[in-house]
């Protein structure tokens, strides 16, 4: 049996915009997030309190976070890589943070400038401090199905890092197929390995759709009772430190598929979301990567 309800975590404003070369004006980011809130989404990852030297696109994290219209009941998590980021997120009024580790040693160094072990001990400090501030903490594990530098990744490493994030207090850990190399075979293998160690109820999947396997991977995860899915409006997304990665699975496409299967995804207005995606693609000068959005324009 499949879960009857799925929570969608919209990551477009963060994962989608972080990879844009040209700076997206702060007011456009705020407008995008406000429009996403109005579609009825329940969780919207807003931005990252990372080093602006590493990701100049999100240098306006504080202004974006403090200027958006927050709707009661909607979660607005932000990425935090270290104590400095946590301090800034708390100052801006964040109630939920996301920390991000990797199952690949090389990707960890490229993305966080430290080893996996160092990142986990850094995140242990971050989570201790975050708990003092009563923040909710979400975790990411990148490169679960493969790494742009190392190729295939040991499943045991995925299990180890995932367990580490739960141990330090993450309420949920999202499994990132950062470069979209995974297939349902990989997700079966990874989820089977995780099953004895963690609650499937507390996992999410974060599928980049580089090779067109994201929806199949999500369906595989649902078969393991995973009921949280990360997605990005218009299929925006990518990671500046993961060469070859393209966008996340499109939120529109996930909603279309899940609703078609009779799964409750909450009160999201799909036509409104398609319109937000279209407007955002026009703003960024890119093609819409949501198949559902493209089909709706054609019909
Ligand atoms: P570092 O260079 O080792 O850090 O970077 P540092 O502590 O040596 O500091 C260097 C400078 O950055 C200093 O400034 C710090 O103050 C400043 P300076 O003294 O030179 O003027 N700094 C900061 N400024 C603002 N906010 C901060 C902060 N921290 C340091 N929080 C660091 C280490 C972790 C900071 C860096 O590597 C970094 O920012 N990395 C973030 C990379 C990133 O955002 N990647 C994309 C998100 S992850 C992702 O996309 C994957 C995901 O989607 C899941 C998936 O798809 O798999 C989540
Ligand atoms: Mg990502």
TrEMBL record:
Keywords: Lyase, Metal-binding
Sequence ranges assigned to domain Pyruvate carboxyltransferase in this UniProt record: 6-274
Protein name: hydroxymethylglutaryl-CoA lyase
EC number: 4.1.3.4
The keyword Kinase is annotated on this UniProt entry: no
Family: Belongs to the HMG-CoA lyase family.
Pfam families: HMGL-like (PF00682)
Associated pathway: Metabolic intermediate metabolism; (S)-3-hydroxy-3-methylglutaryl-CoA degradation; acetoacetate from (S)-3-hydroxy-3-methylglutaryl-CoA: step 1/1
PROSITE patterns: PYR_CT
